[in-house]
Each structure stands twice: as C-alpha cells, then as structure tokens.
Design brief:
Elements (H helix, E strand, L loop, with lengths): L1 H25 L2 E10 L7 E5 L5 E11 L2 E9 L5 E9 L3 E9 L2 E8 L7 E7 L4 E7 L6 E8 L2 E8 L2 E8 L4 E4 L8 E8 L5 E10 L2 E9 L5 E9 L3 E8 L8 E8 L7 E6 L9 E4 L12 H16 L9 E9 L3 E11 L33 E2 L5 E2 L13 E12 L4 E14 L6 E5 L3 E8 L2 E8 L4 E8 L8 E2 L6 E8 L2 E12 L3 E13 L1
Length: about 525
Amino acid sequence: MKCAVRYAGLRLFLLLWLLAVSVGGMAQLSQAGRFEKEQKRRFGDFHVVSLEEQGLALLRDKEKYEQGDRVWEFTQVDTLLAEVWTKELAVEPKYRLMGHDYRDKNLYYLLRSGETDLGDLKIFKLDLQTKQVLEFDYKPELAIQLTHFNIVGNQILLAGYVSRQPAVLLYNMENNQAKIVPGLLADNTEILDVRANINNTFNVMLSERQTKAKKRLILKTFDDTGALLLDDLIEVDPEKTLLSGITSTLVRDEMMLVGTWSEGISKQASGVFTVLVDPYSEQKINYYDFGQMTHFFDYMTPKRAAKTKEKSDARRKIGKIPDFKTNVLPVRLLETKNGFVFYAEAYYASSLSNNPNWNTGNPYYNPYGMYGGYGNPYRFGGYPYGSGYPYGSYPYSSPKTSSEIKMQMACVAVLNGRGELITDHGFKMEDLKIPSAEQVSDFVYTPSRTTILFNKENQIHVQVTQADGVQLINEKKEIQLTNAAESVRPDSEAVGNIRAWYKNALYLYGYQTIKNPEKGNRDVFFINKLKIE
C-alpha cells in the first residue's frame, strides 16, 4: 500500500513538473539584445521602422544646419542591434516628415514642405543592399490633403482628399510623371484604408454615406498602373456607421475587410465588423458588438464586466444594439494559414480631441501620419514580412488631445477564413497613461497560443493564453540593461512602446534615465530586442 501511495505521489509530481516545464517552454520571453544612444527626451525624437530581417531603421532630426539645410541622421541596425549603416540626409528646413514605407528591401521616407495641401513633396529611397540614397521631388498639381503613402512596384501611391473628395495619385519615380487614379472622386465618401498587396496591386476601401437609408462599403483594387481590377459594393446596415477599416493584402487568396463600427453617428465604437469580399455574390457584413466577445470586458472589475455583458445580451435578444461603446484603435490585421487575426487597443479619453473633425465622418481631417509623440512609428500603408504573413500596418493614430489618454486593454480577435469570430483574447493595460492615443502594445500569434506585451513603468507586462482562452502566463519583467551595475532612475519618465518585428521577435523602444553609481546619470534612447520562445 505504501509503495502504491509513493508511486501515485511520484506520478503526480512528474505530471506537475512536466506541466510547469511545458508551460514555461511555450512562451519564454527573452531580451536578446539592447541598443543605446545618449539622447535627451524630446530632443530630436527618433522614428523607428521595422526592416524585418534587415533590422531596424532609425531617423532623427539632429536639429543642426549645414549650408542652410537641416540635417537628418539615418541609422540602420541589424537584428543583433549593431549599427551597419549611418547616413546624413540634408533637407531644406521647410520640409517636415510625413510618413514612411518599407518594401522589397528598400526604405522610403515622405516629406512635405510647408503646411498647405499644395506643398512640394520629397521622397528619399534608401537601398539597403547597395547603401545608396535616391531623392525624388514631386510638386502636386492639385491641392491634396494626404492620408496614405504606399509603394506599389516603382510607383509612389499617395491618397487623401481633393476638395473633400477621396483621391489617389500614382507618381512614377522613373519618369517623374503622376496621374490621378480614376473612379474615386465622390461626395459624402470617406477613405477607410489604402493598402498595397503582396502582388503589387493595391486596395482602396471607402465608406459611402449618401443618406441614412443608404450606406455602402466600397472596395476597389487596382494594378500598379491604376487600372481597375475589382469593384465591390457592399450594403451597410442603415443604423450603423463604419468608423475604421483594414484590408488584407492577399497573402491568403481571400480579401478580408475588418474594422470597427458604431451606432448612428457616435464617435465611439460599438464593436468589430468583418466581411469577405466576393463581388459575384451577395455579401453580408458580420457585426460583432463587444458583448459578444469573451474577454473584451476583462479590464473591468468582475462585477461590472458581468453587468455590462448581461445588459448587452439583453438588448441584443430583443433586436436592439447594445449601448456599450468605447474608443478603439485598430492596429493590424494578420493573415494566417487558418484565417485572420485582428488586433486593436481600447482606451479612455477624458476629453475630446482639439480637432472637431476627428472621427465625425468629416473626411477632411487626416488621422494618419507621424506628427508629434516620441519616435512615433505610425506610417502610411502596409507591408509583408519574410514568413509571408503581413504585419506592421500601423496607420491609425488619433490626433493630440488636451488631456491624458488611459489605455484600457489590448484585444485579439481570431477569425476563420470567412471572417467569423472564433475566439478572442484580452489583456488589461492597468490604465496605462499616455499623452495621445497611439499604439503601445503588440502581440505574437500561433495557432496554439497568443502572447500580448506592453510596457509600463519600465516593466514588460506579458500575457500568454492558449487557443481556448485559458491563461498560461501573466507576469512582469524588468527591462534589462547592458550593465548590471546600472539601474533605471525611479523618477525616469519610463517611456517605451512595443512593436512586432519579424517572426517571433519584437522590439521595445523609448527613453530612459540610466543611473550609474560611478559615472552619474545619463539620458538614453534605447531599443531592446524581445523574443518569444
């Protein structure tokens, strides 16, 4: 009997040990490298761009002049965060940075002169293989307020509004010619997304708002010359308004549209919509309110979450739209072997934007770009990376507000190939406070687990959940420094955002004040490489 008890105890011990080893081995976070450059906060902010397995690109205004030109410093680091190329770019002071795109191992920066919609455009093309820099100057003949910037083949794709109507321009870098893509100029129409596909075609997603009784979602796909390949009109529920949208990029054969919707003219989101593009049959938009998601209310107290979900369920059962709404920042749409994964962040804003046109349906406001904020990596457009799954589509950035933003949670919605919601994951951000609504977290997805990460007060918060939603890990890790004798000053601003990089690697970047017991304090811009094993 004693032998049997000991044997059973040994089996239990081994089972628990194997479980602990398997869970730990499934999602170990390692900090695989660090880059530092002495830099005071808000003094020549760094703009960071993922170059996938080519490394990272850093660009900053050095705030110095040579022969009347402002000097910008470009630095490329490899995946080990070692510097491999540094180049100074001389630009007339009238130009400001508008956006960037990375495609086919070339990096492009877009700059514009002045503050008007007729300002000249300058494009820098950096060939990361030959280490050559080409410069292109384009003077638009039309006053266009830019919202999107992509590279398609050898063409610069510029989208925005001309006299409050959507417009797309194609600028050919080889012959210095530009043309307007036909069939887009229309009143009462808003651009939701413009995105390049992996086969050098591009999508334009529009929201049409003719009358309350007639709303349509429009998807047009063009080749790199601007020839129309697909034109699809999809009816929108007249009681709903589409606030944002992201198109897939044809990594899968299907074209999926995903975004957020609201009831009526509300500026806050009520849920997520999905629709599979099929111009040869009737298409139905799937509308999921947040109460239909399992973990969207995880940032609330259990009592409040249960009450909110119960109320949403009750309204839905009687055919009414649940009245829960919140601010949602769409981040990216991942295309996987089995379907799609939509990633977004929810936040609370204690006051409305200073810009009265933000998210009101008035298309003459540009919510995109790289204005303000430290190292703001938002750009126009999207791109694929080495494994064949696209990521890094970060065009959404709300305007500056007069008060703080509290990030509530990160949300992962897993969809099948038809855009139907399979499961979701949520990670509470503990009311992380930031000056404006911009992406602060990111995730790594596999069919078996989802890992979400964000930084708060120099700690990396990590959550790992299984495909069925069971939480495996929820922990915090200190940001590692190069010198073990150093520490981050407690009163440091503790600024830092996390971004997907390539495969299972991410990068954390920001500013810190480092305390050295022998040499004193120093302010640094830093990048830490993160890997999920």
